[in-house]
Amino acid sequence: MTLWTASDAAAATGGRAHGVWTTGPLAIDSRAIRGGEMFVALKAARDGHDFVRAALDAGAAAALVSHVPEGCADAPLLVVNDVQAALEALGRAGRARTQARVVAVTGSVGKTSTKDMLRHCLSRQGRTHAAIKSYNNHWGVPLTLANCPPDADFAVIEIGMNHPGEIAPLTRQARPQVAVVTNVAPVHLEAFDDGLSGIAREKAAIFEGLTPDGCAIWNADLEVVDILAGAVPEGRTRISFGRAEAADWRLIDARSGPDGTACAAETPLGSIMYRVGAPGAHFAVNALAVLAATHALGADVAEAALALADWTPPEGRGRRHAVRLHPDRPALDLIDDAYNANPASVGAALDLLAAAEVPVRARRVAVLGDMRELGPTGPDLHAALANHPAMAGVDVVHTVGPLMQHLHDALPPDRRGHHAPDAEAMAAALRDAVAPGDAVLVKGSLSMRMGVLVDGLRAQGDKG
Fold first, then answer.
1. Confidence band of 431 (pLDDT split at 50, 70, 90)
2. Which terminal CB of the chain, N or C, has fewer other CB atoms within 10 Å?
3. 3-state secondary structure of 337
4. Which part of the chain is the Mur ligase C-terminal domain (predicted)?
5. Is residue 392 domain-shared with residue 332, that is, in the same domain?
6. Would you say 401 is a known binding-site residue?
7. 60 occurs within a structural domain
8. According to the annotation, is 417 in a ligand binding site?
9. Last residue of some domain: 51, 82, 113?
10. Strand pairing partners for 264?
11. What's the pLDDT tens digit per position in 241-291?
12. 36 is in an annotated binding site
């Protein structure tokens, strides 16, 4: 599908098109080129201009560059003064031309799974475009907008941050009709002098980009709810969700089983029941935000509620795998939550693990890696996990990384498992530390590479 012609892209960016060409979606990784894309030569860890020739050879229809790379004199190019600024211009142009109703999602916890729930539910009701993976930063948001088909019915944009001042310019690019804050938690604390309040103000900045007829949706269970509510521009619709009595969309009951969560809620539309195709109270709450957003977008809530029943979390974000370690014994229940971690998400994952059903003599096992970017409070926040209520339902905790050493030391001896400096060192110990029928949670910040442990456990099953 053609998304950009040479003339349209040049007009949007003020750049100079070399040759006459058309392209499909934009791509930033030359290794992901499949044919027909526009390769965007961003300068990040590596200079993308070094890979333009490889991208073109792999089938890219054109490349967005700030200068003509060596060996590309006759190549189809869009030459601009600044590639990042041009990408943002293409994002704004993509947003301006699409008919899609846009929903933007942010939050310290749950934004990616909520984005995926929205994509899953809305795709049953119309052509839906959404961010790939966690493309939620200064290049991910404009890339998603630039790739939005003009005839899409819905678009779901994920917006993240690491430092103050990042969300506002992204939400102004997205101009959502609906903006959702899933949660505010102590994440990226080292970048905020005023702690949770500063994080809340940054998350609430997503409401700045709302269209004049837009709708702001936030979690009513948070202690910073006044900051979120106070940031909504005048004239926009306000909706809250959660377990709190004051919530407009209120979760009344959530009962998790091995294959999902049965939920009941009171809403402005009346009492509703829905099922989420994954166990976990946090999924139940965020699913309620999805239903509220669906209604605000003008889509069918009942159809969305039915779609939630067959939604499953993406890899690394709570997806469960049955790993058969022995042909004649129960499967190991592996909870893959290895993509990222902060105190709130680890607490939710421990709740999920503690509620897991296991056979007699099987155990609930947590394998936890460092939570990064917590600033000077990091050691204390790691140690405090030992007192999380869900720990009473966890049999053993293995820890990975220097910060998790503080949790290891704080655990009672009967719950203290192995400690390792990194995931690779833990992998060897973990092979003999789990057994058929166990429920095993693997979670940690992305830089801890906890996915190595998930892959190792799944490989054991392949050999079983």
1. confident
2. N
3. strand
4. 332-445
5. yes
6. no
7. yes
8. no
9. 82
10. 253, 273
11. 999 999 999 999 999 887 899 999 999 999 999 999 999 899 999 999 999
12. no
